[in-house]
Fold this protein.
Amino acid sequence: MSRVQDVYPDDGISLREVGLRDGLQLVKKFPSTAVKQRWIREEYAAGVRYFEVGSFLPAKTFPQFADVRDIVKTITELPGAHGVALALNERGVNEALASGIAEIASVVSATEEHSQANAHRSRESAIANVKRLCELRDASSHKPVVNAGISMALGCSIVGPVDPNEVIRIAEKLYEVGVDMVAVADTVGYAGPKQVGELTRAVVRIAGSKPVCVHLHDTRGMGIANASAALDAGARVLDGSLGGLGGCPFAPGATGNVVFEDLVFLCESKGFATGIDIERLVAVRAILRAEMSGEALYGGLARAGLPRGTSAKAA
Amino acid sequence: MSRVQDVYPDDGISLREVGLRDGLQLVKKFPSTAVKQRWIREEYAAGVRYFEVGSFLPAKTFPQFADVRDIVKTITELPGAHGVALALNERGVNEALASGIAEIASVVSATEEHSQANAHRSRESAIANVKRLCELRDASSHKPVVNAGISMALGCSIVGPVDPNEVIRIAEKLYEVGVDMVAVADTVGYAGPKQVGELTRAVVRIAGSKPVCVHLHDTRGMGIANASAALDAGARVLDGSLGGLGGCPFAPGATGNVVFEDLVFLCESKGFATGIDIERLVAVRAILRAEMSGEALYGGLARAGLPRGTSAKAA
């Protein structure tokens, strides 16, 4: 078994809290390092083990991630916790490697138009960037997991519908250049469950024994339905954020990631043991409410609680 | 082809706006008759054809439905529109028949405990009540569709988990006594998509050529995922309410029905033509905002709009 299956066991489900990165990507007011640490520790106590912790991007542009090294350290100190950080160029990758982070994430846009507009580079150049990341990983001492997200994989804010064959082609190339995991991202929440299921199934086929992550946004209320379809199609790594934190730069007023608490409930209801105590997880929202009072929080479990007759751990 | 398949074609999808009944069941401030009529007419203009319009319950207890006869008349005047009203006893059924409503709905609780607590009668007595409704339908001149909902079919606010075999047994009895359609209801939003899919599949099998309705609440954020599972399992009639209007008497603070606009988007994304213009439908929310300002409205489409590259009609 290769390392990535140790991190993301293929006989179970891995749910990743991305609120500390994707959720904070656009916020004006962001929590202090101490608050982020409390957020992580309380979620860890609730059973969460996977955390996207920040980006190795210029702190001038993204001050919310200036403390990423401290947050990596916090994660590293929690037994069994796994941290992920975004790094989009060689400088960032080297910083990420130096931080000791367990997983480095990169991104390729599904469409040329979005790649040029958002990253000012071609998709081929972005893939070459991922290849370089894999080489740096191989040359490193601790060899972190490398994950490459395909943004706009299910619909593009610039061109609209996206040809799934393009996404499959990119996924193939990414596995070819050595990534441990591809993350199929519905960045702007365009898809319904049929589309998510079909694309996930195709990427799972390509991935072979490697895991496939599906990263969904709840922009049009399809997030949980899409997550359900992704699970049915064989995805075993799913992203979400506490309270659905996170806006979308391409859809003003849109909600962010799939609500993590509801995602846990969904997985448990489908028979996937998450190891997460939903009631303890919901309680962590108090931190966000107190520290980021301007951000809307979403979620059904937080409103209604667990159904009668379900224990706190098994929804 | 019997009458019910004329109303609910089995080669397509029928989406029912239940906001005017289920959505108003618990509200303190309710819209005037004129506002209800505007709500219906604007949704009709957007393509909606199925409306649950109210209850034939004592107007003293449910003043929000005192104008049910006027609303039935409004629906009857719209070509191709189909109205549904709730009637829970013989007096109500006779009033419903006299109103000329096209469909009469009754309810049986899935659990004895809930039946006794909520309706102060046994489930057997409730089924006998449905049988009487079918006899009165048969003796009537216009022979409305009879639909029997099984409330708490996917979880009970009193006893918790519900044995699906009990629900299947009740559904069998209901079809036996002559109902045209059974509506499986997740009244308190306890279920996930696996459970919804399995129960729907079983009831569809029993129903034979008759339609099966699935009535879902979004209490724990699973509404759209559950609707997707119900469609996959063969349900062709689904309920929702504009903006997810409607609380739940058994779960304070819980949201109501599945958001109608998001349900339309889901169906279109799965290849089911709904005939509904989502943008026109979303625009009708202005009526609810203006007239029922105390009620929270939900929904992704209303927040984010249609994805780029989709026409207003085909999501």
Observations:
- Chain B has a mean pLDDT of 94.
- Strands of chain B lie at 14-17, 50-55, 82-86, 103-109, 145-151, 181-186, 212-216, 237-240.
- Residues 73 and 207 of chain B are 31 Å apart (CA to CA).
